[in-house]
Design goal:
The complex is a heterodimer of chains A (429) and B (307).
Chain A (H helix, E strand, L loop, with lengths): L1 H20 L12 E7 L7 H14 L3 E7 L2 H13 L6 E5 L2 H8 L7 H6 L1 H5 L3 H4 L3 E2 L2 E2 L1 E14 H6 L8 H13 L5 E2 L6 H14 L2 H8 L9 H15 L12 H9 L5 E5 L3 H7 L4 E4 L13 E11 L6 H11 L2 H11 L16 H12 L2 E3 L2 H4 L2 H15 L5 H18 L2
Parallel strand pairs in A: 1-2, 1-3, 7-8, 10-11
Antiparallel strand pairs in A: 3-10, 4-5, 6-8, 6-9, 6-10
Helix pairs in contact in A: 10-12, 19-20
Chain B lengths: L9 H39 L2 E2 L8 E2 L3 H8 L1 H33 L7 H13 L2 H11 L6 H8 L16 H25 L4 H9 L4 H12 L1 H17 L2 H6 L11 H11 L3 H26 L6
Antiparallel strand pairs in B: 1-2
Helix pairs in contact in B: 1-13, 3-7, 3-10, 4-7, 10-13, 12-13
Classes of the chains: A alpha/beta (429), B mainly alpha (307).
Chain lengths: 429, 307
């Protein structure tokens, strides 16, 4: 009797286990095709069709490869990537930001070293603007292939600027004067939607770079040696807080989203807004001919290189667990071919990292000019929230709203940053 | 049954034994499922909280109770505890207290004719998906175009208008308020169901004795639905300590960390800061808190004696 009970118990248990495990076996296509899983972050209806077309073209040219595509939006993909990488169904090719965001996957041995593939095909390697490959490197090895080359610029409303006879400011002092004139004239000088705090972090990205010397900043941004004791970090936050104290930002920055703020800018409710190069197409659609742009003005006594531009490429990494590295590279080559890059620039208006793809013939005049400005720049300040360790980024992200509403001072915030940076140092070997 | 057992002999005895064994066989699958998907994860979670690890790395480092020490020194943990407690207290007041009052009013003879209408109206918010509710209220709270500030201005109290979700002083109350809007009707519904089971004779008798409406409510309705009130209280309080979606969608813990609750803190640790061990620690603490609270409540309510 007892054995029967035990047997039943075991049977049920076995059934349960079987039910759990059968779903995780990997599925190879019936017809013997190679299946590549491809994860990107653009499910929006204005961008998704481009990827669908490219995938279709690729499958037509390579009938033995099938691409399984999936898209997850910007904010959720930050969390999902971490979960997916821990599971059994890791995509072969997946989106990643450059800098520390990709490097933490490299440290965990989750990303494939792409250096041999790039060196094998120098024509491919040389087709990229060098500055776009560099942010994806770690210890001199390449881990990512850039798809876009994104930069951050101030855009302004030309009509409002003309009304007050204003020029594009080149220095921070000129910038402050411009803002002051606008404020006195009763305009809202700066539009900012900081509900998701990356918006203000992008200001701080540039300000940190301009205030702190390159060596110190690179040492601090490295999780293994970050200290953040340079006074430049406090100064950078002070400059940002001052913009708010003097009333240059619009009202309710912390409860307006970036998109909502953009609508205000389109409606002429403010003079200047800080946006990404990829949004230029949107600007042109809504304010045809009535907008111009300038990079973040230089700071006279700043210790950083003043000829840097804020921005970074983003693109794709290949999973170290992939069974088909060759096919994955083949797809990435197709994705970054001159032909598809031209198409990318033309159809969705994104700046391409392929040399010569973003030119006045294919792209919007302003986008081409923006890419030109980035090529001329001596370096890039990569996004603060993806270029430092996630825990340090989190301190910045959650405090920047409090900096703007005045409830925390730069000194208080940098103390927290230093504390977490120390903790991170001890955890990363 | 228990008393009968000793007097059973021979075949009767085996039959009872066999019966209970059959019963056991029937609950076995459910028991196994619960063991595998509830109790095993709880134990594993406790074990996981002793390591430093993240979801995409293979290795893990043993850190012992370090994370527990860190948690109890983390100021954000106390912000989160405070916010969860606020959630619990306000929810008890509005959902259980307010729900009771609404239920009693709708059950009153005079209004009962319209009860289906009101019941539906009050119940509707709780069937709307939480993601939709979050986005809806984000718009309502919007300082520029939102209805809430518009209403404040319309009644001439424009100094009350503010940036509801962007002000660290009031943001948590704004978020809690949404939950009250959503679930008070649901609670009222549960109470109405319980009240409908009360025999009408009690009310008749008290009416003849000349008891006022308030007195009937206090001395007949309340004691009769005691069990349901207890269930409601347990659900509300535990829900308040498990809350996640509302906060995540509306403020994601911001501005700053002012609306952080234990749930969002856990999520942030796990999926933003890559500290699964710390997240497991928070998970264990949430479990201990909710377990203690429900045990206390069950003890106080002396449940299990009725129903």
């Amino acid at each position: 009797m007892k054995t029967k009970l035990v047997l039943t118990f075991m049977l049920v248990f076995a059934l349960l286990l079987a039910g759990c495990s059968s779903s995780s076996s990997t599925k190879e296509d019936e017809s013997g095709k190679v299946v590549l899983k491809f994860l990107h972050k653009w499910p929006q209806p204005e961008y998704a069709p481009y990827f669908e077309e490219v995938v279709k073209d690729f499958e037509k040219q390579n009938p033995n490869i099938k691409i399984k595509m999936e898209a997850i939006a910007d904010e959720p993909i930050k969390d999902k990537l971490r979960v997916i990488l821990g599971g059994n169904e890791v995509p072969d090719i997946m989106f990643s930001w450059s800098g520390e965001f990709a490097r933490k996957f490299v440290r965990a041995n989750a990303a494939l070293d792409l250096t041999p593939y790039l060196n094998e095909d120098t024509a491919w390697k040389n087709s990229f603007i060098p500055a776009s490959l560099q942010p994806f490197t770690s210890d001199g090895k390449n881990y990512g292939i850039p798809l876009r080359f994104n930069g951050k610029f101030f855009v302004y409303n030309k009509k409002i600027f003309e009304k007050y006879n204003l020029q594009e400011p080149a220095t921070w002092d000129e910038f402050l004067q411009t803002l002051d004139t606008l404020k006195k004239g009763g305009e809202t000088p700066l539009i900012l939607g900081n509900q998701d705090p990356w918006a203000a972090i992008h200001y701080l990205t540039g300000l940190n770079q301009k205030e702190v010397s390159q060596d110190v900043r690179m040492k601090d941004y490295n999780p293994g040696s970050g200290e953040f004791t340079d006074p430049g970090y406090v100064k950078a936050m002070e400059l940002l807080a001052d913009l708010n104290k003097k009333g240059y930002f619009m009202k309710n920055v912390n409860s307006s989203s970036h998109d909502m703020a953009k609508q205000l800018f389109f409606a002429g409710k403010g003079a200047i807004m800080y946006v990404e190069l990829e949004e230029f197409a949107d600007m042109d659609k809504n304010m045809k001919g009535n907008w111009g742009f300038f990079p973040m003005p230089s700071i006279a006594d700043g210790k950083g290189n003043q000829n840097f531009i804020t921005g970074a490429p983003d693109g794709f990494i290949v999973s170290s667990k992939t069974k088909h590295p060759k096919e994955a590279i083949q797809f990435l080559k197709f994705l970054t071919s001159k032909e598809n890059s031209l198409k990318l620039v033309k159809e969705i208006g994104w700046p391409s990292p392929i040399d010569g793809a973003t030119n006045p013939d294919t792209a919007l005049k302003e986008v081409a000019e923006g890419v030109e400005a980035m090529k001329k720049a001596e370096g890039m300040a990569e996004w603060l929230d993806t270029d430092v360790h996630a825990k340090v980024a989190d301190v910045y992200l959650s405090n920047i709203q409090l900096l703007l509403d005045g409830s925390k001072t730069p000194e208080q915030i940098i103390k927290e940053v230093q504390k977490v940076a120390k903790q991170v140092q001890s955890e990363v070997e | 049954m228990r008393f009968a057992c000793p007097f059973l002999e021979g075949e009767d005895m085996t039959r009872t034994f066999r019966n209970s064994r059959t019963a056991l066989l029937f609950i076995l699958p459910a028991l196994l499922l619960i063991l595998m998907f509830v109790f095993l994860p709880i134990v594993l979670n406790l074990y996981n909280s002793l390591f430093r690890w993240n979801s995409f790395e293979v290795g893990r480092a043993f850190v012992g109770l370090e994370y527990y020490g860190r948690l109890f020194k983390d100021p954000i943990f106390f912000t989160a505890l405070k916010n969860n407690s606020l959630y619990a207290v306000i929810s008890l007041l509005f959902q259980v207290g307010g729900g009771l009052v609404i239920a009693a009013i709708l059950e009153d003879k005079l209004i009962r004719r319209f009860q289906p209408f009101f019941r539906t109206v009050f119940f509707i918010p709780s069937v709307v998906s939480i993601a939709v509710v979050g986005l809806l209220w984000q718009l309502l709270y919007n300082p520029e175009v939102g209805l809430v500030n518009g209403a404040m201005k319309a009644i001439g109290q424009s100094e009350w208008a503010r940036s509801w979700l962007g002000d660290s002083e009031v943001a948590i109350y704004a978020v809690v308020a949404v939950s009250q809007w959503q679930y008070t009707g649901y609670m009222a519904m549960l109470f109405i169901l319980a009240m409908q089971k009360i025999p009408y004779e009690y009310y008749e008798a008290s009416m003849i004795d000349g008891a006022s409406k308030i007195k009937t409510f206090l001395f007949i309705t309340l004691p009769q639905i005691k069990e349901m009130i207890l269930v409601g209280t347990v659900i509300t309080v535990i829900g308040a300590f498990k809350v996640f979606d509302e906060v995540y969608i509306m403020t994601n813990g911001g501005p700053g960390r002012s609306t952080e609750v234990l749930g969002t803190m856990l999520y942030r640790a796990a999926f933003r800061n890559d500290e699964m061990g710390y997240a497991s620690t928070i998970g264990t603490v949430i479990f201990v808190i909710t377990l203690t609270l429900s045990l206390v409540q069950l003890k106080l309510g002396k449940s299990g004696q009725e129903v």
